[in-house]
Amino acid sequence: MKARIKWVEEASFLGQSESGHALLMDGPPEAGGRNLGPRPMETLLMGTGACTAFDVVHILKKARQPITDCVVEIDAERASDDPKVFTRIHFHFIVKGNGVKPEQVERAIKLSAQKYCSASIMLGKTAEITHDFEVLEA
């Protein structure tokens, strides 16, 4: 996997993925940014959420669970001193469907957390990662 990051101006950087997609990241005004895009650490957190959500949806579909929606709300804390790594990350999954079995959702989340989501497993080296979920009827 390859990526390219190009400095645009001040604290703005354009990330380009190997798959041909681009993402503008920017810093806060106090760091010379203009708030044109997410911060790099926000991007890391969103990417981790997408990684685990992808796993959970994929596992639930393979288990033939009738899901219609999946949202992951993420709450994270960072260290107060540099390098300000994530120290705590909580993932709250909201899964919707008609007759989705909670035990299947719990299983999918555990599989993602322990085996498949390389991003959250990597961040788990510095952060305490927790999960919970709710299942709502569509």
Automatic annotation (TrEMBL):
It holds the Pfam family OsmC. InterPro entries: KH_dom-like_a/b, OsmC/Ohr_fam, OsmC/Ohrsf. NCBIfam families: PRK10738.1. This is OsmC family protein. It comes from Pelomicrobium methylotrophicum.
